[in-house]
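Dear H.,

Thanks for agreeing to be a second pair of eyes. The structure we're designing against is below in token form, covering all 254 positions.
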């Protein structure tokens, strides 16, 4: 049955930034589809762990600060998840930060911080997961891109640069790894109501301008992204490589 190919029973997923918002929604959705879930992040995701466990799935918190962790730290975190949960089938690179300022005044420390979390850590986690997945000849990597993977945005030069690069990285890894049975894809969320977009939603004029440009007529919520990620993490997407799936309420269609 075709619906069986969307199931993730017996698989293990590693999700970054699963404490709240999009990452929490994705982790819970993967557990609902049958996966055990490791949650990598700076803050212990107690609520997410409890909700995954309530679904009868195993949940493991892996404490790592992406802002300071080096390649060896991240490789070790990936290995720990695989060792403690017995395997690794799925990686979802969700965690990200944003810094807002005019480009001419964008502080170098903000540029470095955003590129570190939103790009360098993504690549290094892909490397760590890739070593496992290539050896077992199967695996699914889903990177979280953005509408700013396509557009320049306003007052977010480091974030736009990082998210453009995430798309390029996704395609580069897909080219190398597809023949080995490892799928590397991305989703590009539209304007989602999260902590990162709180400043935009607090500005009444900006919020209205954004909402009016979305054909769906509303901001997205984290649960709007879950179906796309479960699909890309499942056997239903076995012939999907290097794709960037926009989940944006029609934003790009405008």
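And this is the sequence the design step returned. I haven't edited it by hand at all.
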């Amino acid at each position: 049955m075709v619906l069986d190919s969307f199931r993730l029973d017996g698989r293990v997923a590693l999700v970054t930034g699963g404490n709240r918002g999009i990452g929490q929604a994705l982790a819970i959705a993967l557990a609902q589809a049958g996966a055990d879930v490791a949650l990598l992040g700076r803050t212990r995701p107690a609520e997410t762990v409890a909700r995954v466990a309530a679904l009868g799935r195993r949940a493991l918190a892996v404490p790592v600060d992406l802002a300071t962790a080096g390649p060896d730290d991240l490789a070790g975190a990936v290995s720990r998840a695989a060792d403690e949960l017995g395997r690794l089938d799925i990686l979802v690179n969700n965690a990200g930060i944003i810094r807002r300022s005019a480009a001419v005044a964008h502080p170098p420390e903000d540029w470095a911080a955003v590129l570190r979390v939103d790009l360098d850590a993504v690549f290094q986690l892909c490397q760590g997961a890739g070593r496992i997945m290539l050896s077992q000849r199967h695996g699914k990597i889903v990177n979280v891109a953005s509408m700013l993977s396509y557009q320049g945005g306003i007052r977010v030069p480091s974030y736009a640069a990082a998210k453009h690069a995430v798309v390029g990285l996704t395609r580069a890894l897909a080219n190398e790894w597809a023949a080995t049975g490892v799928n590397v894809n991305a989703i590009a969320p539209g304007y989602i109501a999260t902590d990162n977009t709180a400043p935009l939603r607090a500005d009444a004029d900006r919020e209205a301008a954004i909402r009016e440009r979305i054909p769906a007529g509303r901001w997205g919520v984290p649960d709007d992204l879950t179906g796309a990620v479960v699909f890309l993490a499942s056997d239903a997407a076995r012939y999907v490589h290097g794709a960037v799936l926009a989940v944006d309420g029609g934003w790009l269609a405008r």
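Two observations from my side: Strands lie at 12-16, 36-41, 59-63, 90-93, 139-144, 182-189, 244-247. Residues 2-246 form a domain with the Rossmann fold fold (CATH 3.40.50.720).

Warmly,
E.
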